[in-house]
Amino acid sequence: MMVKNSNIISGNAKILRGINRGMILNIVREKQPISRVNIARITGLNKSTVSSIITELIKEDLITEEVDKDQNIGRNPINLFLKLDRYYVGAINIDSSITYIAVADIDGSIKSFVEIETESKVPEEFVKTCVNELLKLCKKLKIESLEGLGVSVAGIVDSEKLMVNFAPNLGWENFNIGDVLRKTLPGIKKIAIENDAKASALAELRFGGYDIDLSNFVFLSVGQGIGSGIVIGNKLMNSEFKASGEFGHMVIFEGGELCKCGNNGCWEAYASDRAIVKRYLAKKTGRLDHVNDFFAQDIIDLAKNNDPTAVEILQQTGNYLGLGVANIIKAIDPYVIIIGGKVTQVWDIIYPEIMSVVKKRAYFGRERNIKILPTSLTTLPRLVGAATLAIEEIFDGYKIIA
Question: In the predicted model, is pLDDT for residue 32 greater than 50?
Fold first, then answer.
């Protein structure tokens, strides 16, 4: 039995050291640059324990130290940083149309990435194709091995069993993606799979640029569908059947547009990239089907150039997004909602529409100040999210030592 007193955890010595090691490594990641003294103060651990673990981490090239040369003080403190350009992880983001494959450093920075067309009909073969592209990328970067691999998928994912339970936009159901990856990449022991929106939330939490409290927030990923990742108490929320945060399939119009999931009136049938294209084509040509090589990005680019139809369609999208956001606020009551996706490129168009609806529908007449922000991640959040999944495996206190 373990007993936790303040920040100090007692129990089996090996487990205890692993937990403390993971805790110290995470503090360096989040607070760098930071001294040994400050780590001891934050953790409540004695200085000798901190120094011993720091020595191990330096020997393993996970962290590095640097003297802070300040002429205004006597003895210059030694600060600790993550050691970069030493350990790398692979990242794969699988969406219904485009799949992104990358190599990242342990600070979440993407070293290089490629994109390929998603071929989802035979999932086993497509995953092998993704792995081959990843290995090509490693060879190009002269990286001999990866410490881990993270995969984010647009769908309901069982992260413990490494299963894709249901991905309607991919046509996948009960696909054991972890089994394929283990067989294809036997040398990689740390493999993590997660829903793309949940992975994006984790990336925003760990590597985002906002200097605000993100202990309780919702990340909305707007793409071909709409997904969400919910963070409560600094932890990613999951659920019994791994389907928490599937707000894209909440019904906002009973008997409305047919959704990919088979139901009518789902939120993503109105506010996703696919819905943007459908409405624009209906407005311009009277057609409801997609024109080849015409995407939401094309409409966004037209709106940037003040095309009135594109602006109108995106304003409608902001309105529809506001309907769903208002429901999320009433259900979750988060401190922040962060939105990722192509639509954030025209934040000046969609944000006022979102807020107009939210103010009317979300607060029950009471004044509230929930922040609604575009993602701070400059690279694709779902791809950084995939990398973050693998990085979390490396930083996990229970798994970082055998």
Answer: yes
How crowded is residue 392: how many other Cβ atoms within 10 Å of its Cβ? 21
CB 276 within 8 A of CB 317: yes
Q: Are residues 306 and 368 in the same domain?
A: yes
Residues 63 and 141 both lie in one domain: no
Check which CATH number belongs to the domain holding 77 and give it: 1.10.10.10
* Tens-place pLDDT, residues 226-241: 999 999 998 888 777 6
| Residues written for the chain | 402
φ, ψ for residue 124, nearest 5 deg: -60, -45
Nearest to 218 by CA among 335, 357, 390, 344: 335
Domain boundary among 56, 82, 108: 82
DSSP readout, 298-309? HHHHHHHTT-HH
The tokens describing 296, both together, are 């939401």
With cut-offs at 50, 70 and 90, classify the pLDDT of residue 168.
confident
Domain boundary among the residues 67, 82, 97 is at 82
One-letter amino acid for residue 247 of the chain: F
Using alpha carbons, list the distances in angstroms from residue 228 to 114, 128, 199, 322. 25, 27, 9, 14
Mean pLDDT, rounded, of the chain: 89
Measured distance between the N- and C-terminal CA atoms of the chain, rounded to whole angstroms: 20
Give ∠ CA 57-63-67 in degrees, rounded to 5: 115
The residue segments making up the domain with residue 97 are 88-201+382-395
Number of domains into which the chain is organized: 3
| Residue 101: CB atoms within 10 Å | 26
